[in-house]
Amino acid sequence: MTDRLLRVWLSFCMILSAAWVSAGEPVKVACVGNSVTYGMGVENREHNCYPARLAQLLGEGYDVRNFGKSGATLLSRGHRPYVEQQEFADAVAFAGDVVVIHLGLNDTDSRNWPNYRDDFVRDYLRLIDTFKSVNPGCRVIICRMTPITSNHWRFKSGSRDWYEQIQSKIEHVSRVAGVELIDLQELLYDRPQLLPDALHPTAEGAYILARRVYSAITGDYGGLSMASIYGDNMVLQRDKVLTINGVANAGETVEVKIAGHKRKAVTSYNGRWQIELGPLKAGGPYKMNVKAASGSLLFDDVMVGEVWLCSGQSNMAFKVRQAAGAEEAMADAGAHAVRLYNMQPRVYTDAVSWDSTELALLNKGDYYLPTRWQRADAQSVGDFSAVAYYFGKMLADSLGVPVGLICNAVGGAPAEAFISRRTMEFNPVLIDEIGNWKNSDMLQGWVRERAALNIRNTPFERQRHPYEPCYLHMAGIRPLAGFPVKGFIWYQGESNAHNAELHEVVFPALIESWRKTWGETLPFYYVQLSSMERPSWPHFRDSQRRMSAELERVGMAVSSDLGDRYDVHPVHKRQIGERLAAQALHRDYGMAHVVPCGPMFRQAEYRDGAAYVCFDYADGMTTSDGEALRSFEVAGDDGLFVAAEAVVDGDRVKVSSSKVKSPRYVRYGWQPFSTGNLVNGAGLPASTFVSE
Length: 692
What we know:
692 residues, alpha/beta, Rossmann fold, 28 strands, 32% helix, globular
């Protein structure tokens, strides 16, 4: 709807409701649907099903009736058409003033959608027309369906795909019929524990649905609010159109003002508003005012510059105060135009069992502590990610603009935890990790063991944990969606290094997931695993190297020269942050003179009893310590590698061994704890590699 039509429609609805109330007649609300509306599986159904809870919320002046029928289809040729049930006849006779329709779930059955999908829109429009024929003034609201989760017995055999097609058809019906649409999927989609049989909400889930329907009927969405990422001291992304959004009561006009820009929007009937601002030039401080009839928000000391999301596991979470050079960094913190948004966990995944309060909060998705934007000072910097801070500091100093850093890293977390549920559900490999993750050997054994220890005290079979696939996307990524960022940096892999081949599926899915969340192909820079005595790491590092060449708008920072043989948390983080910053400065900020990385293997040629290795970014190749090149190996046709001598030969490295007369393969840095010392003229180290 246009803003004008929306105002007219909402005004009509409010006038109509007021007329009913003033006439002393209750507003009749008909809840039409299937077993979810009926309340199948809900304890004490008569009191806790969503129509019953809706009646409690609406209170006096409303007469709410439940016309749900278990197993009912929207399709009139389906296996149990709603229009042939007694509940339908009763709903028509009721002649509701408001009719809320939630149908479609049972149409995903193989008896229905494959055969009669072409009837769906026509059948739905007829259903709407029937209710309007008995009460021409009735207000019809239709619903996007509640979720079917991936552990449903026919999810992969058809329901997943047919469900999506039906949702699209429901949206189409809303547009064609000109009726309101409530999204009931988003409320429960990331909370599968509220759908224990993969389909029917618990009493808690039913109450969540009732709250949404209540807001749709009354227009009361709790007044003006915005995501918690908006706040004093924040940094907004420069030089791009900014989408500012939030929630307010239906039909309200919302006005946003900042830096001489002023825009207005009218809140839709679903409580959402969205305003486009800018582009804004770097600068500040500014005040941002957001006003509506239901409230106002004032954000002070707002800067405009570059914003990056920084995430991963413990090596990204590793604090400045724990890293080498901490005292100097903290003492100097105030000299740099860096702002920090530090998302800290409520509970850490240490080797402990959590209590009932902590477990309950996790089930609600409430994993991160409330936080706020902070200026860089000794305290805030000391408690912030070292890698992220040094990355942001180098950007701020190089670009001369404010830099905002958002960090939500979680120690020990597998990459799957940060991927959206939709991405994993539609990935033919990763879908099998979701439902049975606690017993899936697709997740590293240590990850499953630590999660089991943390949640040992739970009485709930489907207890949530931050290591659960999709959980951290729900808790820590999705709440940031829409807040404009320039790109992402990532330091993770230790909890996926058991299976490099699986990670080659997981990692692209992660990047795809985040880019879809923001709706842009944003740059993604990551840290290659360091050196440590873990035997799978050479293969994993090489896999990371190969993906850096294969994936769009990604770059990799090498860290193997800074590892610790026995500690998974090496303390030299400044260099890692700066290597990530070099990638961004070179690729995203047009600084061609900044070398983005060390020598990167391109190809090898074999002749005269030697391997001649060619690299990208090879200018000025030498050794980091002035010693002879180390960590090169060659192999013949048998593939058995032996240590080799290596020398820089112009823009190549010549590798040979008296034990291999005709080399066919060459590799470098292949020891778990590598002592390789090849660098380029910028002093950046070469990556682990093995020739094809």
